[in-house]
Amino acid sequence: MLDIQLGVEAGQWPSEDALTDFSKRVLENAATFLATSEKQPFLKQPVEISLVFTDDEDIRGINAEWRGQDKPTNVLSFPAFPLTPGGKPGPMLGDIILAEETLRREALDLGKSFDDHLTHLLVHGFLHLFGYDHMTDEEAEVMEGLEIRILAELGLENPYGDDDEMTV
């Protein structure tokens, strides 16, 4: 269902093999959930997604260039093509970029494991590629609801249950 292209650019990430296995499990679960629960159409051939694992310095530069925010963030998503929720994706879905230091710092602050927080951010970034957003309260309610349900499928608790502050 997903053809994952993965690169570790910077930071103290696990090995590429470990990240590939981890990401494939998380994202294929999210894709299956969207395909069945949200009637999200998928192509019969794999949809390609690019994952970049980097550090705060790199993501800060990307965030400054593309979003006008000169600061590190935990995850950035860049859809290959504009897509509205429920729309049909093309063969290239887009890119998800994650920053290791911010992710570790947030996981510690939230009292969550690194893997659980990484899982949440992968799901969060993946939903952005499908056109989901959280710019308005209504959009946030829909997107967070999907995150909660997908994470529950993966055995994780509601990341918003305690009104945790995150930079997603």
TrEMBL record:
Binds 1 zinc ion. Its cofactor is Zn(2+). It comes from the Bacteria. GO terms for cellular component: cytoplasm. It is found in: Cytoplasm. GO terms for molecular function: metalloendopeptidase activity; RNA endonuclease activity; zinc ion binding. The keyword rRNA processing applies. Zn(2+) binds at residues 124, 128, 134. Pfam families: YbeY. Keywords: Cytoplasm, Endonuclease, Hydrolase, Metal-binding, Nuclease, Ribosome biogenesis, rRNA processing, Zinc. Its main location: cytoplasm. GO terms for biological process: rRNA processing. Its EC number is 3.1.-.-. Coiled coil: none annotated. NCBIfam families: rRNA maturation RNase YbeY. Belongs to the endoribonuclease YbeY family. Single strand-specific metallo-endoribonuclease involved in late-stage 70S ribosome quality control and in maturation of the 3' terminus of the 16S rRNA. This is Endoribonuclease YbeY. It comes from Rhizobium setariae.
